[in-house]
# Entry
Amino acid sequence: MGYSHLASSIAESPTLRLNEEAQLLLERGEPVIHLGVGEPKNKAPISAILSSAAKLSTGDVKYSPTDGIPSLKKAIIRYTEESYDKLVEPENVIVSSGAKQSIFNLLYALLNPLDEVIILAPYWVSYPEMVRMVNGVPVVVTPEDGGLHPRMEDIEEAVSASTKAIIVNSPNNPSGLVFSDSFVKEIVQFCESKKIYLIMDDIYHKLVFDNRKAAPCYKFTHENIEDSRLVVVNGVSKLYGMTGFRIGWAIAPRKLIEVMTNIQAQTTSCASVILQVAAEGALTGPQSIVENLRMTIENNRNVMMQELKSIDAVKVDEPDGTFYCFPDFSAYIKDSVQLSELLLRKARVVTVPGKEFGMEGRLRLSYAGSVKDITEGVARIRWTLDPNSPNEIYIGDRKMVRDWL
Ligand code: PMP
# Structure
């Protein structure tokens, strides 16, 4: 049809596609359980709603400065100081329409054609596609020991003269693992010594369980922010469950922020001022919502782990954070796309195939929903796969008989 080869080769977002598919089934009245979602059920913080409503009611809704309104940047600076013990300047901050846009602008700003970006499997689905969209080459590094935690030796082996950046996402989507402090320290110092950009996607860094903490990467750098190649990405989507507000940000050396700002200026101009004001309201309002959300999700994680134990041959690493776990179903079916389709078709459970995150034999299951969804969803998965489970089950008010095992 004459579309660009590059654009035509970009994969559809599997998680957004699954959301749409599940929505269509729900609209048809099907009893779908969604274990694919990456957003909690909570309402937005009242402080976010009130401040955006107040701004909206003035009717004075115009372009904002491209890199974000000063008062939101101030709130982000305070957040960065509290969370990372790092004081940055307004010139080190850019606000975007979601962390996703910050990461895209960042890759656009950094990469020349064929520059390589190291991505650690299992990875968030968008990284490889974004790297390819800016004519870069994603280099996927999978832990040689078959585990989910990245290993420095595998990363060092993958680094070449063309390596421009490494993306680290801890707590990790999809595994839920929080990478060890020693790993974060090593990778920060390795990137410093090799002059490679280190992109820390910290979007889940407050969503951590069992009294653990995600390592604050700035603690390990010896460099001044202006000389450093460390970039930290964050946002309100996961922190406050404000996914629909589409506000994220990046902290980086001011020269890099300037280039990212030019990219943003020529594409979206700025994030919506109403939504920036909402993010500011959330960041400056009562923070108990973050802890309440964290506790709810930790409880959901516990329920998910308990339920998964009842499926004999499933292996799962207990997540330390996020809304996700990444169990290994390969004892039942190795092809994760086939497995995910079987679960949707037979049991009306939405899951995301491990293949999308660069690892086969696994599914990403979300525990962001209700406890009822988790228990019922896992019960249906058990019924679909485990010959030791009863042969018949009710899905909604429909009696289903398993005839495929
Ligand atoms: N990074 C990771 C690892 C994510 O899981 C997500 C959202 N699914 C994002 C970034 C994007 O967040 P935002 O909604 O702020 O664009």
